[in-house]
Every structure is written in structure tokens, then in C-alpha cells.
Amino acid sequence: MTRKIFLSSMVVVISVLLLCVGLITGVLYTHFERMRVEQMEMTASVLAQGVEHEGLAFLETFQENDCRVTWIDTDGVVQYDNYTDATQMENHANREEVQEALQSASGVSVRESATLSEKTIYYAIRLEDGSVLRLSMAHSSVFFLLGGMLSPIVFIFLAACALSGILSYRVSRRIVRPLAEIDLNHPEQVETYEELSPFLQRIAAQKREIDAHIAELRKQQHEFAQITENMSEGLFVVDSNYQILSLNKSAMEIFGIETPVTHQNLLTINRSESFRTAVDAALHGHHAQETLKLSGRIYQIIANPAHLEASETLVGAVILILDVTEREEQEQYRREFTANVSHELKTPLTSISGIAEIIRGGIVKPKDIPHFAGKIYDESQRLVALIGDIIRLSRLDENQIPLERETVDLLDVAQEVVHQLQPIAQKNDVTLTVEGASAQILGVRQILGEMVYNLCENAVKYNRAQGMVWIRLHQTETEVRLSVQDTGIGIPAEDQSRVFERFYRVDKSHSKSVGGTGLGLSIVKHGAALHHAVLSLSSEVGVGTEITLTFPRQCESVGRSNHTSAKQ
User: Which end is more exposed in the chain, N or C (fewer Cβ atoms within 10 Å of the end residue's Cβ)?
Assistant: First the structure.
């Protein structure tokens, strides 16, 4: 019994002592806290005046080490802090003292600082421009002033710690249990302390805001993916360490990549010098353009560095790969065309100049002058024809055909061509025949006439004696087909893909003997493109050649059969 009473008394005594110590400490704490707040209020007033007059420069001269000064913008962004790098600090708009200062000119709060990791007193004052100047002092300074009083109560404090440790352990478990059971996915649906309701509501609101931001980011990511995936150009996005962050389907097709290779070194995709040079330049902050030959195609690599907004910090590069094969081929054709034109123009001009020089020197006998004059005339006509063909090709290339489209009957065009080629056909002992019915299309009559004329002229010139040339017309509900077939010398298989190039001749010696500018089939090719026609060729050496033009049918044909022939 005595033991029980003793123990009960001890508990009562210790509890009363602890209560008294707590009350005394609380009174002293409140007193020193009020003094500290008043001191901070005075210091804040002085600092506020200095900041309003001198700005940030005044804060940088503030030397009081036990007082932390923070200058917060109207939107909560920290502009200055004498303890920590302001750019690394989180937004302070939700700080209690900041919100109170914004509402009532000043605010005070006491809490544990996330930066200083100790109890801290905060005093905030609103400046004239709406920003907030906040001072904070560590709460430990109060206990430092009470250091002289700690020795008399050390034993009482130790006893109180032991008792409070036991009690706190049991109570804390009871208090924390509801907190541990909170469902963060649905914080508003948890039954817990009433005091936590605002906190849980804020968590729920922040969760909804975060979910909305995530949904927006996913939407933007999806839109970016849709745009890049539908690009015909290849695209790589890499970081500063050459790691692939993103690539599109075209890039995978160009480099033969079967599966996405994000977070892989870009240089493992292609190790060619031009590719590496472009990527290196971009990741050193320079724009670069290089040409890459890959799988028989020619690509242009455009590499640009990527920097952070409002900063020169290099974070990566964007690599764009464009297929420029056709452009390079056109450039090569242009160079060849220029060289061929120079050669073709030089030949008749040289001949004319040479004959003229002979006549001027008086070497030619009077009876030979008509002969040389005929030579000059022939060469000049060849020159005129060549220039005319070049002009027509240029206009076709640039879509500068001055003639309007009209309904053209290809049967009439074919018959006109046969009539025009009668003299040449008779001279070469070749028979021209037109077969088929009337077929009308929408086109440029002059260009269509030149196309059929060039096809038939080649068929006559490169034919054999007693040869045949058939011009056939056939139409369906969707298309009109015109073919020119001959029994001539034919075209070798290795030359068939190039016969429509400008100035290209299969047999240069024979071509020279029959004349021509070498541009006839090129005009046919460009004329077909102008009329959206499909051009095809079938040929066998020693048997003959057939060239077919297939036009889309755009108007009704008038059916009237025809079978005419012209014999040498």
C-alpha cells in the first residue's frame, strides 16, 4: 500500500512540477517571443524603408547574422534571401505570415523552418509595391537567454522527459494512427480530426490540379507525337550527352531502325563522318548542315542546338533529316543539260562560222557558193529547232504554258501528224497508220501535237526500210490511251530508262545521221506530266518499240472509227 501511495505521490509531484516548469517556461517564452517580435518589427520597418529607397542593394549590405531576411514578390517568388540561394527556394505565396501581410500589412507566425530545420519566428511586412519583406529568427535564441536557469531544473527536466517519453509514445501512436490511415487518392472521404479538414481539402485540390496538369502534358505529348509521326522528314531530339530523347517513324525508316531506341547514344545509329560532324556541331552550340548518302539516297542533315528559355544553357539538339535525292538529281540533270546545250549549240555555230570564214577568204568558187549557203541554212535551221525545243522544255519545266486548255480530239491530232510526216515517211520508205476511234481529252492542243509528232518522227527516223508505224487510240470509261508502235531498230534494255532524258541518244552515230535535237522525247515526258498522263515504253532490239501515253478521261468522246494509212 505504502509503495502504491508513494508511487502515486511521486506521479502527482512530478506532474505538478512539470506543469509548473511548463507554465513558467511558457510565460517566459511568450515574453521573449513578444520582445523578439517587437525587435523584428522595428528591424523590418528600417529594412522596409531601405528597400523602398535603395532596393536589393540595401538588403545586400544588411549584416545581422542571427536574423534571416527574405524578400518575396507579389506572386510568392523569392527575390532575395541572405541565407539561401533564392532561385532554389520554393514559392512562398502560401506561407501564413505572407498571406497575412498581404491582407493586413503585416503578419506573424511561428513554425519549424524547412530551410533552418528548427522552430522559427516569422514577421512579414508588406511594402508599397505589394511585395513582402519577411524576417525570421531562430526560436533557440530564447532558450539561450534562459541558459542560466537550466542547471537548477535539469533533474526535473530529465524526470519530465522520462515520463513524457512514456506518455508520448502511447499518445502519439493513438494520434498518428488516423493520419496513417488517410487515403491520399481520396483525402476528402477520410474521417479524421476536424482540424485536418482544411489540410485534406488542400491536398485534394492540389491533387486535382496536378491531375489536370498531367492530362494537359499528355495531350501536348500526344499532339507532338502525331505531328512528328506524320512528317516525311526524319527527326531526332537528343540531350547534351548524345542520348536520344525522341525520334519519329521517318527517322526509323531512313536508318533502318526496327524498334524505338530512346536513351541510346545517337552516334550508334550512324557513324559516318558527315552525320557525326553535324551532331557534334549542334551539341557545341552551332547550327550545322551536312549531306549524308545512305542506301542509295541522298539526305540533308540540319542540326540545331537547343537552349533553355531565357538562358544560354545548352540542353541538347534537334536533328532533322531531309531526303534531297530528287533535288540533287535535278541539279545533276541541270549541269548535264547545260553541258549538252553548250555542246549542241556549239556544233552548228562552229560549222556556220567555218563556212562563213571560207567564203569570206575567197576560197570558195562561185559555183560552190549555193552548196555552202545550203549548208549554212541547214545548220541555222538546226540551231533554230534546237533553241525552239529548249524554250518549250523550259516553259514546260516552269509551267509557263501560255495556251489555255481545250477539248482536243487525239484522233484529229494523230491524222494531222501523219499528214505532216508524209514527206519524211516516203523518204525513209515507212508506212504510217492510224487506228482507233475519236477520243477527246482536256489539254493544250499545241503541246499534244508536239508530243505525238515527236513520237512519230522518232518512229519513222529510227525505222528500217519498208517499216511500219502504228498510231493506235483506245479509250475506256476512265482513260484514253494513245500508243505509237514501230518496227524499227529498238532500244537496248540498259538505255530504256534514260531515253527520255534531255540530249540522251542511244546510238549517237545513227542519231547524228538522222538529225534531230535530242529533246523530242524529253518534250513528250514533260508534256505527259503537264496533262497528268502516264508514259510507258516497251522495246526489243531488232524488233521495234512501242511508247504509250495514258490520259485520264475528262470529257466524253465522240465515237467515229478510223483506219487510214499512208504509204511511201
Answer: N
